[in-house]
Design a protein that fits this description.
By secondary structure, the chain is of the alpha+beta class. Helices cover 45% and strands 18% of the residues. The protein contains 21 helices and 19 strands. Strands 12, 13, 14, 15, 16, 17, 18 and 19 form an 8-stranded mixed β-sheet that branches.
């Protein structure tokens, strides 16, 4: 009995035992190992038929055979349709990250351009995340750089404001953007509300791909202004036409026959995969992004591409067409699932000739070149990780390196920062920031700040992953600092019982010159690496990345603090009412001095809220 508990049965016989209890319904199945970790999530039109395939002792690929050999139990969930099963399968894969599934690892959101709607003079800006703010969204763009380039073009052509509403309300004279002809300065009345709304409409038409009629209308307005001898206005219109022409020339690579599509190219090589996605919206190329899904050595292109599409569009709205380099296993099923999600038809195409095929060829070329660079970088990274082992006597090449740094100005707006690196380079989705909370810390106490950051980090690790099975625990800690910081961190590690994790302090050497760093470890004398050692450059890059991230986080916190007002702490006053109050009174100080009747006169402020605001400021004295 004891042996059976310690060594539970695994393999195809276990899977075969489930055939008696499942029917022919569509659904999702999970295969689990002896420790109940999910090995694989799959969907089926007929659960019994699909599971019976795994119950056969032979005829499987090497990957599937390994999976079956590790299977100790299974879980099933039936659905009404196979489409529901497909959607549920992709959700579970993203949540559970099973070992034997194709997994999309980089799943960040993409930026959009937002034209706001709740202001007389709409703002145009970059937006990332949930679309909660009212206005018109255009995107997605492949990167922040692609958005910034487009915003720059829009400002040159349409002179729309990009300043915040608070800054807009506070202006008394035009800003630099107006001086360099990037804004029409609606904040100080340089353009009427009617004319500004027309330029907003033109910008929206531009983002929708309708540029020809804009140019024709601007030319008519320029000629009319010239005939009426309004030469300054005619010159301004001429400059806008010229800027628009330059934009159209720069966008010569845009497809003419593809209005709204994602071009998806897959390249497989040596058990690695790269998927290249080009975003085409309004006949304009809005950039591309490469992905490296986790795959096995014996997966085929159809399985990889279907898994990628299912996971990629799980939280994103698909365009009208997906133009693919390869067929997928269930194209009709995927099209139905995506169409149902968005509420309109979505087509999946694998073109053989014409412009669409040329676009796919371009995506494939980029995927092939990107994967070649990635494989070269991975080989270099592997050598560097082995170099860390040799230089610092580590037990094994680290899979996860955590690097810590602090940033503050004389103790104010203090933040801690953690960056993460591994075999594939920087793992930016794992970066974390820590707002330093310690009320008892002396301003500028770097040791105390580092101790607080590490305390919070290890407390969370012990709570969320006490068995160290989820891959969240570091194999190496790098601390920006010398013997003092190392000693402080060592005491924290001892407190939490995690003294088995190697830790190195990186301190600037003589004259604080890069290249003369000293490395500190617990119980060992400080050491240095030779000036041209690649491992030294690697550690410097890690430290500099942590420093960059810490400074950026600190600046963002400081900027937020600078923009803060006492109104932020008044119950019931959100961003909209705060703007209304500042616009009405001019400053938070004036709001605090206002009498009750003046507060009640502000649009959007109820009598009850006016009394709350009045009481808040007057009770404070």
């Amino acid at each position: 009995m004891t042996d059976e508990i310690e060594n539970p049965p695994v393999g195809h016989e276990v899977i075969q035992s489930y055939l008696r209890t499942i029917d022919t319904s569509p659904g999702v199945y999970r295969m689990l190992d002896t420790e109940s970790r999910v090995l694989y999530v799959g969907k089926a039109r007929n659960l019994r038929a699909r599971v019976s395939n795994y119950a056969r002792p032979t005829g499987h690929s090497a990957r599937i055979a390994r999976m079956i050999a590790n299977t100790a139990s299974m879980m099933f969930l039936t659905t009404k349709t196979e489409t529901e099963a497909l959607l549920l399968e992709q959700n579970l894969i993203k949540q559970l990250k099973p070992k034997f599934n194709v997994l999309l690892r980089d799943d960040k959101s993409f930026p959009n351009i937002l034209v706001t709607a709740e202001h007389e003079f709409p703002q145009i800006k970059k937006h990332r995340g949930a679309k909660k703010e009212k206005g018109d969204y255009y995107g997605p763009f492949a990167s922040a750089g692609a958005v910034n380039r487009t915003l720059n073009q829009l400002q040159r052509v349409f002179l729309l404001r990009d300043c915040s509403n608070a800054m807009f309300e506070s202006r008394t004279r035009p800003c630099l953007q107006h001086q360099i002809k990037r804004c029409s300065a609606p904040c100080v009345g340089k353009i009427s509300a009617q004319d500004y709304r027309q330029t907003v409409k033109d910008a929206q038409r531009f983002l929708s791909g309708k540029t020809t009629d804009i140019q024709a209308r601007l030319a008519q307005e320029m000629n009319a202004a010239s005939e009426e001898m309004e030469f300054e206005r005619a010159a301004a219109l001429r400059d806008r036409i010229k800027a628009l022409t330059q934009v159209q020339t720069a966008q010569g690579i845009n497809p003419k026959g593809v209005e709204d599509a994602d071009i998806i190219g897959l390249h497989l090589e040596g058990g690695q995969a790269c998927v290249q996605v080009f975003f085409i919206r309004a006949n304009q190329n809005w950039g591309n992004h490469d992905y490296y899904p986790r795959v096995g050595a014996d997966v085929d292109a159809a399985e990889v591409l279907e898994a990628f599409i299912g996971q990629f569009y799980d939280q994103r709205d698909p365009p009208r067409q997906l133009i693919l380099s390869n067929e997928i296993e269930n194209p009709d099923l995927m099209a139905d699932a995506l169409s149902g999600k968005i509420g309109r038809k979505v087509e999946l195409l694998v073109p053989k000739r014409g412009e669409k095929a040329e676009l796919v060829d371009g995506a494939l070329r980029n995927a092939r070149e990107s994967l070649a660079r990635k494989l070269a970088e991975t080989a270099t990274q592997t050598k560097l990780l082995q170099g860390l082992v040799d230089a610092f006597d580590l037990p094994k090449p680290p899979e996860r390196i955590e690097v810590y740094d602090n940033s503050h100005i004389q103790g104010t707006n203090a933040v801690g920062a953690m960056i993460v690196a591994g075999p594939d380079g920087m793992m930016k989705n794992q970066y974390r920031k820590f707002n330093i909370r310690g009320d008892d810390l002396t301003p500028g106490d770097d040791f105390g700040m580092m101790k607080e950051v590490l305390q919070r980090r290890f407390k969370r690790l012990i709570k969320e992953d006490p068995e160290r099975k989820e891959g969240h625990w570091p194999d190496l800690l790098l601390i920006d600092g010398g013997a003092g910081q190392v000693s402080a961190v060592a005491s924290i590690m001892q407190e939490f019982g995690v003294e088995d994790i190697p830790m190195i302090g990186v301190a600037k050497g003589v004259d604080r010159d890069a290249g003369k760093e000293e490395f500190h470890r617990v119980g060992k004398r400080p050491m240095a690496l030779r000036h041209n050692d690649p491992v030294l450059y690697f550690v410097q890059r890690l430290r500099d990345e942590a420093h960059r991230f810490a400074i950026g986080t600190h600046r963002a916190k400081r900027a937020k603090a600078v923009g803060a007002t006492p109104l932020d702490d008044v119950p019931g006053v959100g961003a909209g009412r705060k703007r209304a109050l500042l616009a009405h009174f001019g400053s938070a100080k004036a709001v605090g001095r206002a009498n009750l009747s003046d507060l009640k006169a502000v649009e959007g402020v109820s009598d009850a809220l006016a009394e709350t605001i009045y009481g808040y400021f007057h009770e404070r004295g």
